[in-house]
Queue: 4 jobs
Job 1
Amino acid sequence: MSLLNGVVIDKIIADGDLDGLIAASILKAYFSEAKTFFAHPAEIRNGNLDQIIDRNTAICDLPFHPNCGLYLDHHSTNKPTDSELEVFSLEGGTCAWYPVDSAARVAFDLCSKEIDLSHLETFMEMVDKLDSGKISLAEFNSDDPILWLSKTINLEDLDYVYLLLDWFSSGKAVDKILTSEEVTSRINTIKQKQTELRRIIIENGEVIDRIAIVKMHDTGHRTNGYLVTSTFGDECDACIIVHGFSDGVIGDHSRYPLSASFYCNSFLHRNQGVFNLTKLAQAFDENGGGHYNACGCRIMPLEEGKVTKRNVIQSDIDKNLEEWLKIWSSRN
């Protein structure tokens, strides 16, 4: 019997990256009438979407919500506890949390038994690699169109994201998607900007105790761990990227709050890295989390190394970094 037997879904909420998009597309192919929403993890944790989450809602590649009807994910820190899962199941919820390389893989393995997803079969390999930190440096520096597609997905460009959702969920051939004008024009723009982005990373970055720290907040620029660790190379075992805006608000996809992302240098360390980075992401932000080798949190207001009740200010960035470096040093 399928895990999805009897499950009725009219809303899908997914993370706004490639993994979330493909997971949502697969669910959309199965639940064809469902309306899809894209969100950041902080929006789920902050309660921004509580008003639309009910037993007819599927959530994928995002933190667990007890009021949803179907939960799909693979992040270690998002796994429901045994007690949460017991209550969730008793109240009619269905959970598909598996320790695989991507949330899209959870959705693919679940739905491909009942619907034709053959158009995504080869595509899934790169989705898994990208989301689990298993791509090689050669692959990252290549012209692989799936890798470059992943860089075009941005919640500030929602019409485009929904176009991709429609294409992937309807079974459009992947090669036609990757060679479409909508995709190639965005890829070309990003390729032109990448050299400049590397320069910004170098100018705003430093390596302390083998962890690269890049401050990109209030610049309007964003990057990921792959670009930072490939830029600093063998000098770093991991990186911290500070991004967002001093006046940012959770839920505003174009101006989100001051945050930090943590990534293992997966080009050097292929098996989860030298340290569990969720210890940094969850040190002060109770809603921080993700994978051991890739996670994130908000910058929190700190006084003497402890969270305090006030608004976040610029000096909190260095206070958070100081405490994270202390925790990082314990790896030795």
Note: DSSP finds 13 helices and 13 strands in the chain.
Job 2
Amino acid sequence: MKALLTNLFLFLLLLGLAGCGRSKPEQADTTNGELIPVTLQTDWFAQAEHGGFYQALAKGYYREAGLDVTLLQGGPNSMSLNKVLTGKAQFAMNKADAVIDFGAQGLDVQPVMAHFQHDPQALMLHADDPAQSISDLDGRSVMAIPGHTWIKYVEAQYGIDLKIVPHTFSLERFLSDPQFIQQCMVTNEPFYVRQAGQQVKTFPTATSGFDPYHVVYGQAEWIREHPDVVERFVAASVRGWKDYLENDPSPAFDLIQQRNQQMSRALLAYGHDRIVRELLTSGHADQGEAVGQLDPRRLQQLADQLRKLGIIPKGEGIPGFDPELVPASARQ
């Protein structure tokens, strides 16, 4: 159903763009030393997982780069792809597999950096559940977002069948049912369950071999026309992420709590700790990974996985990705 709705949305979006003409983001230009306005549409409400961008904003790194950056909070109805393609935002966030799929659909997209080198998504089980890995979950019910690529991948990889229960974005059923399994982010939901007095274990979906970047992407045409602005934004964002990971994250925490008053300091600290400990943003230095980096080889591997699963058409290359458009700050 999610895939069907996604395809319908893409069809309607393409129809709308064809009818009214594709709108470019407003021209970024420096005049008399004025700051260049840039908007990033995030993928959820302000949280620890966005910390590097908020750190860069709070500490003035974007302004030092000559940019006036607006961070728009996301949510279920943020319509980030539409905002990028119609010029309401220069950049948005999504998983790399989704961006490649957009490109395969013929949409004019291009990733410019990775804010997560590794996917923080996992399956969350109660600590005393007998399952020891994802491969043990054949026939089990899992609350997840229908249509997400990882579901097809793990079923094919392990020869299992998951009974998907549509995600309600609530922990009520998990807390009341010791057999329940739920899709989660290792940086978020386990904190709430432990706060409720229960213990959990998590199986990161990345351990299956499906480990997409979480990326910032934009409209390829605009990126091609404004390489200097893209480089400034990415360089300042990478600087913000490094500062957030290696130094005091309080400036980001303060700004996040101003924007999202439901966010507790304890959850921010938990999310930050997991991002640092799991090397989600910094990656594994001994494998050549770094903050912000986009490796074309990993993206090619991801595109190959999507083709094998039948999610994108057979072919060559990486839809929605031109390595020449990746700014220097995000290159290997």
Note: Strands lie at 36-41, 67-72, 91-95, 109-116, 121-126, 141-144, 163-166, 182-185, 200-204, 214-219.
Job 3
Amino acid sequence: NLAQAAWHKYGERNYDAAIPWVEKAHQLSPNSSLALQGLAAIYRSKGDCKRSLEYDGRALELDPRNARLLEAQGRMLATVRHYPEALKNFDKILDMLPSDPSGDFALAYKAHIHQCQGDLQAAAALLRSHQGVQRSGEGVFDVQIIQWLYERRYADAIAALTQALQRPDLAAGGNFWVPSQIEGNLAWLLELSGDSKAARSRWENVRSKGEELRKQGHFSVHLRWLATANLALGDKDKAFAIAREMAASESIDAMVTVNIERMICELTLQSGDKESALAQLARLVALPYGSYSMPFGVSLVGVSYGDLKFNPLWDPLRGDPRFEKLVEESKKPVAME
């Protein structure tokens, strides 16, 4: 039953067809949390945050010390800006895994939530508590880069990303998209620091690698950087064509859709169209901000109060009363129907 549901969800992207199969699996194994996790994921993809959280809660009732379940619910709570509740979940994970490196993701989430709240001091304190920060799936490296971005410590972020690009394991197995993401972030930070010549060289590399992946049929995150590279190199039409291509390929999942809308808003602002960017941003502020995803910075998912307040991306809008109103509105939890 769960295998059939997975085919409908991931193969066909037919979420409604997947639901009966998962419900049947739960009826057959009512004491297992797996089917409830599946239902939470489906409703998350449908954009029904309320029902997704309900199924996360029911799954945790059956398996209260499951770190993966606590993470999933914490992520969803953060998605709708219920930050205090989300922090409690990650505190539980850290209590369960106090000295386990696999608990790093919980520390990363906690620090990122503080960033979203606009509490950079609390985020910095957590990051200082983590020794030997490395880029990994746990995301501590990424959150540290966000911190430096928000603090406008561009030199620190540039040095860390440059060092990360020199790691040979990043390109292992032809996985070019990871260095492409890092190099895209690096190019943007170089622009922010005023080194336009070095930034242009990096953007050209990002565009070249991105086109190679595009020809191979790869989509998702790297297309975001390919679009940004084209805009940075003066090809606005190509940038927005890629954005539309990405939207068409990923338009089913509600959480992914939010992230793509954010990307288009960024491109619109960076192209100089402040009025359209403000209109797009007004819609984004009212939406769940998507799944927690790395890498950082200009590609942060959705919007949060901390991002609007500190991210230099939004500097062209500062001082506009309409933008300042949206910054204040982003403090509020997202309405769940």
Note: The mean pLDDT is 86.
Job 4
Amino acid sequence: GYVVYNTLPTYFNTLEEGMKAFSGIRDQISTSGGQITSVNLSREAVSFQSAVGSPTSIPFASLTLLRVFEIPKAQEPWKWGVGAKISEKGDSVFLAAKSREAAEKLFSILASFAAAAGAPLELRDVGSSAVDPTKKDLKDNGLKDSKGGVVQWVAVGGPSEKAGLQAGDLILSINGLPVDSNREFQEKVWPTIAPGTGVETYDLEILRKGTPRSIQIKLPSLDTFPKPPATLNFAPPPGLPAARQEQPPKLGFTLRSLEPAEITALNGKTGAAIAELAAGGEAEKAKMQVGDIIVACNGKTLPGPKELGALLLPGENTFTVIRKGLQLTFKINPPVASY
């Protein structure tokens, strides 16, 4: 099992400060491929390269959640870590740390990078998570039919813990809305009442080992959360010569979701269409066009626009494109900040 901790970032004033802080803990952070050997940072994503395997990438556009966690029974010294949710489907990236201090520092670094990229994290949340109940969960609560959501974890120090919610509690309703199917509730109902929609309190009806209970979770005031400084961005510091203030082009395109006719034409394939090209950008130089449909990046299928960042690699990237029924290949080598 693991323990999740409610964590707030300490934002750095600049990207340079964030990268310097990462250099100080690099030997205390690890991916599944081992300790990190280098990190590449761009406005689109941050990628960590280890000695073995492909880089671990965190795209900022689809980064929605960061968690500091502890696995008490994990092998020494990697008992701590940071988890990042990087897609709407729940895909996650995990980075291990040698200490809570290193994990919390990494949390602040990643939150600072996301804020600098114009995609700051939503820090207000209830501090807990629920999953579909097992047969044992239903039996323990005296239920015959499957319903509700079982609390998987409660963040230490978070709003749910302060309200008295516990792991194993079975949630029957939230703000009067029944949780008949946890998965369906999370996909269709929760987005309408989640933090950020204006809802400040959550009234839960639960079962705890078969006993009904009522719990109210209150979100902290927005005033209690740190705000990223204006100096935290990808723009150069003021006062640089004009020639140095010009930002190097990145990929040079923006993407949109596919239209119904495009989805039909792809015969089951997924992808994203180029909506705009930056003048003088890398994509324009490579002869890509508005309307091109990117179906793969570096040999991996592209599910949609928000998932591109996770597929990008430092250096050259290869795009498989459909243009008027023809499959084309383009190679782009966007400049990134390397440290």
Note: The chain is about 20% helix and 30% strand.
